[in-house]
Amino acid sequence: MAETLRIRAVLERYCMLLDTGAADDLLDLFDDDCVFTMMGRTYAGKSEFATVWSDAEPVERPTTLHALVNPDIQVDGANARAVSSFVLVNRGVDGVTQVAFAGRYIDELRRDAGGQWHFTQRRVETLARASA
Q1: Which residue ranges make up each domain of the chain?
Q2: What is the pLDDT of residues 30-79, one digit of tens each?
Q3: What span, in angstroms and rounded, lies between the C-alpha atoms of 90 and 74?
Q4: Model's pTM, two decimal places?
Q5: Which residues lie closer than 8 Å to 108 by C-beta, 6 or more apart?
Q6: CATH architecture of the domain with residue range 2-129
Q7: In whole angstroms, what is the distance from residue 54 CA to residue 46 CA?
Q8: What pLDDT, in 10s, does the model give residues 69-78?
């Protein structure tokens, strides 16, 4: 159970760091050889997908909230698989809050020699988007 909670903390930290624009800390959650797939594109290796967040600016008051729900985490020794649902809530420039989209994270993680869990594969599936 302890490893499941550690993995859940990584999943939740990802959401929080994404919302606050902390790109360097966000990248630390990934294995160097991680494969990351989102919006129809696959990035092989952390150095390749680091460009996704290269324009991120740290903010004290985020305009987005990624809410992670219903994580199903399966641990097998130093490897794990997690499937989680998420909702992205966005505060528009007019101050109106909307659900921007919802989806699932399908993850594989590995525990390093120091006991820290890192994503080795992350796939983002969008299930619903707000209308424009």
Answers
A1: 2-129
A2: 999 999 999 899 999 988 888 888 887 888 788 889 999 999 999 999 99
A3: 31
A4: 0.91
A5: 79, 80, 81, 119, 120, 121, 122
A6: Roll (3.10)
A7: 12
A8: 999 999 999 9
